[in-house]
Design a protein that fits this description.
single chain; 120 residues; 3-stranded antiparallel beta sheet; two-stranded antiparallel ribbon; 3 helices; 5 strands; 12% strand
Length: 120
């Protein structure tokens, strides 16, 4: 059931000094205008989100990382970054050095994707 029709029926059935048929028609018009504005805003929002997504995907990475020895390295830095996170999300996630006994799984661990890596 249409909520506006229900409101109109209640006012007609029970009467009201403050709310009359003209007020209901005015409210209907205003709701229609607002619905149109919401629809336009949703469309604009969707378009802008898509443009932002494409822009971020096309943007060259801001990290100067080089891939060598199976890991990502920054020039002059002695600790590596996760190649999986960098390739997947373009985020430079620094790997943590593993200590015994966990180093038997790999030399490094990514704190985000939990992947183990060996140097070299």
């Amino acid at each position: 059931m249409n909520p506006l029709k229900l409101l109109e029926d209640l006012v007609v059935e029970h009467g009201s000094a403050k709310i009359q048929k003209t007020h209901i028609d005015f409210l209907k018009d205003q709701i229609t205008v607002l619905q149109c504005c919401v629809s336009q805003l949703e469309s604009t929002n969707s378009t802008l989100r898509e443009r932002l997504r494409k822009s971020e995907a096309d943007k060259p990475p801001s990290h100067d990382l080089n891939f060598k020895e199976g890991l990502c390295w920054r020039e002059g830095d002695d600790s590596p970054f996760c190649p999986g996170c960098y390739d997947g999300t373009r985020k430079a996630v620094r790997l943590t050095k593993q200590q015994p006994p966990w180093d038997e799984f790999g030399d490094f661990l990514c704190p985000i994707c939990k992947q183990h890596f060996n140097k070299g």
